[in-house]
Amino acid sequence: MNKYVKGFNIVLLALLAAFAVVLTFDSILPSESEAATGTVRRAPIQRGAAAQTAPSTFASGNGTQGSPFIIRTVAQLNAFADSVNNGETYAGRHIRLGSNIDLRNVHWASIGFYCALGGTRSFNGSFDGAGFTIFHMGAGNDARRPASSLFGALNGATIDNVCLQFVNITGGANVGGLAGFTMGTTVKNSRVSGAVSGHSAVGGVVGSALGGFMENNHFSGTVTGVSGVGGLIGAVDRVSIRSSKVTGNVDGVTDVGGFVGGMLDGVVISSVVNMVTVNGERNVGGFIGNVVDSGRVERSTFNGQVRGNSNVGGIVGRLTSGSIVSSNVDGSVRGRSQAGGVIGDFLSGEIHRSTTSASVDGMFDIGGLAGRMSGGVMRNSVNSGMINGGEAVGGLVGNFASGDPVCFALESNGSTGHVSGHFSTGPLVGTFPLAVSVPAN
User: Fold this and answer.
1) What is the spatial distance between Cα 85 and Cα 75, in angstroms, rounded to a whole number?
2) pTM for this structure?
3) Distance of alpha carbon 441 from alpha carbon 427, whole angstroms
4) Quick one: CA torsion of 256, 259, 260, 261, rounded to 10 degrees?
5) How far is 63 from 83, CA to CA, in rounded Å?
6) 50-78: per-residue pLDDT in tens?
7) Is 203 helix (H, G, I), strand (E, B) or coil?
8) CB-CB contact of 229 with 23 (8 Å)
9) 45 phi-psi bin (left φ>0, alpha ψ -120 to 50, beta other)
10) Would you call 274 exposed, middle or buried from its count of C-beta atoms within 10 A (0-12, 13-18, 19+)?
11) What letter does residue 10 receive in the DSSP assignment?
12) d(C-alpha 240, C-alpha 246), whole Å
């Protein structure tokens, strides 16, 4: 564990030092009446003061899969947190919620915590929300004692069917509504709504994720950070994410994504970012702000607005290597430079069978599929959005930045949207080196 945590720290610090971000999700939250009558499982709610006298850590159970430890009250949830914070990992043990719990009058401290210099306390077992809901986590905290994630650190854990509503989370690094830091962990079928804010590696559901699997998780609300900030996860390395959804607003500075802020290596499949506004300065994407090493987005859809200064894209702001496959963009993209309907700054990799109808506006290197392309391949992809810019403006690519014709290729693509610009403007490509010929598409 120490070797991987240390390695991830180094990479994460390098990632966050290179790129700085702030996200804000416009809260689209269920009303309190909806929380009581909608998708929330009906059960008596344990409120802060009334539950403090529970005599033991758990209501029942022996921690096995067939008889998990049951948590029904605030006192039991706090006692569980205390035990993890004191070194109990619960490896191989099973915990389950047995009631809805309201934390509005409770000062919340996370279950476990992550420490980059050592001394991390993590939960390593299985936690099942069982369809119950924890309400108002962080509402009982104040500016002197801000609330942290439900779980501070998870290592090889399984988290299933957890619902958090009306969260109000504030932290520094590794901040998420459900978990701050995860390693080799599975998180599935979970929902978070509310406000999450921090400095670096900030996500609506998870702050930092190293290895593991996430499926069918949803976030709606507001996420705010400075670097590595995402609607679902702030910073990702070697994580597979499937069938998940984000709704809200994201506002930031560097490495800002509607889904993931910064990705070293990972996969996003069959996921949706819907009715989201993503704001940033550099490396701003509808799904991922910055793919540093290699990433893949497949069969996924973005619908919303992306705003930034440089490297701004409907799917990825800056793609070093990886692929965008069978994915779609609708809405609008706006950036001063390197703005594209799919990728802002496309260094290498592939755009394949993807479409965009988003309008793209900016000043320099503005393209229907990619703002600037210095390597990679585009094939069987179509832009139908309106493209408007100043210099280097194209229906497919604004600026081919490489003089080596083998560095990139355009194959069977199309652009049907109107293209307008002042200098170096073309129906397919705005500007490219004289040594390169653009094939018919």
Assistant:
1) 15
2) 0.86
3) 11
4) 10
5) 14
6) 333 233 789 999 999 999 999 999 999 99
7) strand
8) yes
9) beta
10) middle
11) H
12) 16
